[in-house]
């Protein structure tokens, strides 16, 4: 591998990591400005939290790099904060905030325990000592393929796509493109590459919905 190609791969990883850290900031700001958060799919919100929680346990159990773990911690914080925002405007959502808080309060101590004692289940074969973490990994992978489908369906039914910030989707698309670049350059597994293409397709579809429904809304006003 040439030094230029390697540099591009490393740059893609760095951009992706930075994007993960700021991904939810536009959404949090969007929620403050948006008087009605009913266009955020609760199913997507719940799947997102479960997926990140399982991913955190999976990554902690197998001793993944600190950047990987930190991203999960940050996302759980963002998602719980969005839960609070939703609950403040939709009182019926409060019960989900309670359930999600309990789930996160279970996941984080387990992760901290594994990290504090440097416990790593590095055996690639499923056995009695690591089966729990393998199950968490499979659950999180399945959820990543499903998480945005309820939100897409909600956009389609309501003919509105204003639940999430446009910048949130743009950053998400940039992250997927950077992840695909690094996956190809560094020879990640075919599943990683397929997942990146899937994420890119979802974000393009959702951005298309945002564009189409905003034009429809503008036409109605005119």
Keyphrases for this structure?
single chain, 222 residues, mainly alpha, 2 domains, 78% helix
Please, could you describe this protein's structure?
- The protein has 222 residues and is mainly α.
- The chain has two domains: 1-39 and 160-222; 41-148, no CATH class.
- Helix content is 78%, strand content 0%.
- It contains nine helices and no strands.
- It has helices at residues 3-22, 25-33, 42-61, 66-89, 94-116, 131-146, 149-158, 166-185, 190-221.
- Helix 3 runs antiparallel to helix 6.
- The N and C termini lie far apart (56 Å).
- The relative contact order is 0.15.
* Number of E-type strands: 0
Number of helices: 9
Separation, N- and C-terminal Cα atoms:
56 Å
Instruction: Give a short account of the largest sheet.
Output: none
What proportion of the residues is helical, as a percent range?
over 70%
Tell me the series of helices and strands, N- to C-terminal: HHHHHHHHH
Structural class: mainly alpha
Strand content: under 5%
Mean pLDDT: 87
**What global shape is seen?**
globular
Question: What is the total number of structural domains?
Answer: 2
Low-confidence parts, pLDDT < 50 over ≥5 residues?
218-222
As a whole number of angstroms, the C-alpha radius of gyration is 19 Å
């Amino acid at each position: 591998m040439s030094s230029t190609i390697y540099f591009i791969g490393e740059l893609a990883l760095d951009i992706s990591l930075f994007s993960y850290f700021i991904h939810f900031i536009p959404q949090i700001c969007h929620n403050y400005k948006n008087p009605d958060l009913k266009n955020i799919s609760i199913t997507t919100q719940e799947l997102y939290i479960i997926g990140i929680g399982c991913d955190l346990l999976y990554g902690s159990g197998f001793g993944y790099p600190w950047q990987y773990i930190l991203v999960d911690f940050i996302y759980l914080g963002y998602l719980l904060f969005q839960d609070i925002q939703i609950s403040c405007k939709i009182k019926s959502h409060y019960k989900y905030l309670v359930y999600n808080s309990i789930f996160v309060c279970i996941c984080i101590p387990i992760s901290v325990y594994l990290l504090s004692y440097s416990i790593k289940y590095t055996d690639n074969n499923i056995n009695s000592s690591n089966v729990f973490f393998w199950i968490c990994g499979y659950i999180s992978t399945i959820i990543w393929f499903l998480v945005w489908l309820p939100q897409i369906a909600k956009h389609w039914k309501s003919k509105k796509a204003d639940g999430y910030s446009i910048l949130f989707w743009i950053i998400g698309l940039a992250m997927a493109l950077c992840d695909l670049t690094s996956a190809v350059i560094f020879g990640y597994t075919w599943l990683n590459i397929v997942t990146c293409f899937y994420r890119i397709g979802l974000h393009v579809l959702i951005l298309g919905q945002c564009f189409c429904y905003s034009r429809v809304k503008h036409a109605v006003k005119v």
